Description:
- The chain has eleven helices and 13 strands.
- With 320 residues, the protein is α/β, with parallel strands linked by helices.
- An eight-stranded mixed sheet has the order 5-4-13-11-12-10-8-9, sandwiched between helices. Strands 1-2-3 form a three-stranded antiparallel sheet, with no helix packed on it.
- Strand 1 and strand 2 form a beta hairpin.
- Helix 6 (135-153) packs across helix 10 (277-284).
- It starts with a helix and ends with a strand.
Amino acid sequence: MALKDRLVELHGWEMNLLDKHFVRDADYSYSVVKDNHDWLQFITFTAQPRQIVQEIETIKELDIPILYVQPPTKFIDGYTEFPDTLNDHSAENVAANFALLDAAEVPYLDLRQAAEEDNLDKERMFYRTDHHWRVETALWAVGRTVQELEELFGWELDPDGAYTDPANWRVTDYGENFLGSQGRRVGPYYAGLDNFCLLTPKFDTKYHLELKQHTGELTIYYGDFITTIINKDLLTEPSVYTNRYGTYWGADYPTVVADNLNIEDGLTVLLVKDSYGLPYGAFLSTMVDKLYMDLRYYNIDNLPQYIEAADPDVILIMYS
Length: 320
């Protein structure tokens, strides 16, 4: 183990022993808060609306249906509490995005509200030591997105509910072996480890997958969901510091093209996302013809040209 990791662990052990609920990082934006439920949190500061939301009128001119998907935030109003001297600005940042979407008359799916409507177990929505939602929550979110697409545009991606039924997904439990992005800032002795479960389809899958690296290198895979989408190295690596969440796709790539060979003449979806979309995109790919994904590293000025080349039936935009 690196000396730096050992020092972080010792400092986290001391902070836990002293019952400290705020651990300042050298980079203040990555300082860690332990909330009233012993979840670890980063503070969300006031931010400008996402660039793609600021440019939404330009995207809208392409005359392609758009749906903005807002994931639940780990700071949950009425549930999460911070120490009195700290404030989280997640809600106001989301409101600023929604205001621009409303002005452009672009629909959005607020999964914060949907989680309340579906009475999701708040204790199971997020990893305790990571800023991401659990992969189980991402599967639920895909189900809600599919419902919204049907209500808005009449597309039936999952008419009998088979693709989004948790019973049709195999659960492989890897136990408490995951220290998330927030936990890595303070070490495992501050808040423990997270349990990580992998969800893979029980039904038949077949893909042609293209992953474009930041270097421009293109990697191509053929095979089923596990062969093409799951990076097993991130599951078998013994270190708890390994990013298990990145098991889906293996990383955030500039562009991903997943061609579902089991579906012909189905929907082509362009998903513009951040890392929340890794398991979300993987699960969504099982019920669409083609999935184009990521583009957050793509020059926003060139985005309309990329969209026109992909020719999607719908653009999904999802940022945490």
